[in-house]
Amino acid sequence: MQWKGSATLTAAVRRARQRVPYCFLSLIVRKNWISTMTSSGMLFPCILIFSLLTALNISVTWYNVKLLQQLLPIGREYTYLGDDYPSQLPLKLPSVGLVLESGAPHFSLYDDGEWGTLFPSDGFTDLGPNNRTFLLSMIHQMHCLDVIRVGYVVNRTGAAQHIQHCLRYMRQVVLCHADTTLEADNPVFIGGRWEHAGSGLGSVHRCKDWTMVRRYLLDHPAADIEQ
């Protein structure tokens, strides 16, 4: 018994054959399409057409990738002469989290030893073909904190000018980083009234992995200046 819509289906297939290769219609209409194409001699042409389409697709994809690569910025080469050097250390740093803690009893005002561990290679490293020496800002900032600490502890003569430089420097660094981490309000009762206050403890800051910077400086210290 024939399906009542077979005449309509046959007419539709006939029209479609005028536009679509027979091998693809065989996939759609016939169940035993492999044996059908083999017996009709269409298997090889179908494989050939499929291979050509695949190759064309790969070629177009490769062309698009090459075209996009041309649009990407090319890594600049620096001479490290004069002002021709990068603004950042050429080291990719992953983002890490830092939970603020009290830190006690470490890094007290009087612990010169622990503060001294913050300055691998004194913060200087050599870059470029001629080994030009640079100071890393992170270590400069740590140095300024240490200068303020030492100036407070010993109240040495001449420390005021150095401390003033460091305070101005650190003020600008804080503005530069503009850390927008939210710190919980912990109100305190002062002078008979409640006032907003915050210790910052427990706040999670998004940071760069400073341990990688430390390892880099230890592995790439600046050469001594020839006397």
TrEMBL record:
<comment type="similarity">
    <text>Belongs to the ustYa family.</text>
</comment>
<protein>
    <submittedName>
        <fullName>Uncharacterized protein</fullName>
    </submittedName>
</protein>
<keyword id="KW-0812">Transmembrane</keyword>
<dbReference type="GO" id="GO:0016491">
    <property type="term" value="F:oxidoreductase activity"/>
</dbReference>
<dbReference type="GO" id="GO:0043386">
    <property type="term" value="P:mycotoxin biosynthetic process"/>
</dbReference>
<comment type="pathway">
    <text>Mycotoxin biosynthesis.</text>
</comment>
<dbReference type="Pfam" id="PF11807">
    <property type="entry name" value="UstYa"/>
</dbReference>
<dbReference type="InterPro" id="IPR021765">
    <property type="entry name" value="UstYa-like"/>
</dbReference>
<keyword id="KW-0560">Oxidoreductase</keyword>
<feature type="transmembrane region" description="Helical">
    <location>
        <begin position="42"/>
        <end position="63"/>
    </location>
</feature>
<keyword id="KW-0472">Membrane</keyword>
<keyword id="KW-1133">Transmembrane helix</keyword>
